[in-house]
Design a protein that fits this description.
Blueprint (H helix, E strand, L loop, with lengths): L1 H30 L6 H8 L3 H4 L6 H24 L4 H7 L1 H10 L1 H13 L1 H28 L6 H24 L9 H13 L1
């Protein structure tokens, strides 16, 4: 009975954490990381500042948790992708989803990157996360080539992985510079770029 109660308490706490992260993301999008206070976050969530501090000790801790959550989601998608028999085909089928996700979340992603440029602790979190995603993606790129019967050298795999990530990073920037780009049907062209990049 005690274990079940502990699990329910833990689940409730995790739900609260996720709700706070969602509320904080909205505040950061509207006011920026430094413009949004813990009071703003607590007000938007309907919880006292003191209560939020029971879950996160600072705004910096909230950003780190956001990056960790994004990493978990991304690694989950890559793990699902790695189970596909035809990796390249599966990757291309998910391109539209990836394009939209990158552009829709552009404001929050840019805010985190801006903070990483100022804050060494956040920078380390962002860079460690990027490294882990990059390594997982590189393994998929290498597997795609091996399946096609080619043996790319490590430098080629790294370069192709970097370019693949740069495509989506670039879409984030374009969505901020030109909001109308979100309305464009970029999927077919991005799929062609990825196919040409990975099939060769």
């Amino acid at each position: 009975m005690s274990a079940q109660l502990d699990r329910k308490t833990s689940d409730k706490a995790e739900l609260r954490r996720q709700q706070i992260l969602d509320a904080a993301a909205e505040c950061f999008k509207k006011r920026g990381f430094h413009g949004a206070s813990m009071a703003d976050i607590s007000k938007s969530f309907g919880m006292s500042c003191g209560h939020i501090y029971n879950y996160f000790e600072s705004k910096e801790a909230i950003i780190e948790a956001m990056v960790a959550r994004d990493l978990e989601h991304t690694l989950g998608r890559l793990a699902t992708l790695s189970e596909e028999k035809d990796l390249l085909k599966a990757l291309l089928l998910r391109t539209d989803e990836g394009v939209q996700r990158r552009m829709v979340n552009s404001g929050m992603d840019a805010e985190i990157l801006a903070e990483a440029g100022r804050n060494p602790k956040v920078a380390k979190t962002v860079q460690d996360t990027d490294r882990e995603i990059r390594e997982r993606l590189a393994a998929l790129v290498e597997h795609i080539h091996h399946t096609a019967g080619s043996q790319p050298d490590p430098d080629t795999v790294r370069a192709k992985t970097t370019l693949l990530m740069a495509i989506f990073d670039g879409l984030m920037i374009r969505a901020i510079r030109d909001p109308e780009v979100v309305k464009q049907n970029l999927g077919p062209t991005v799929r062609l770029m990825i196919q040409n990049l990975l099939a060769g």
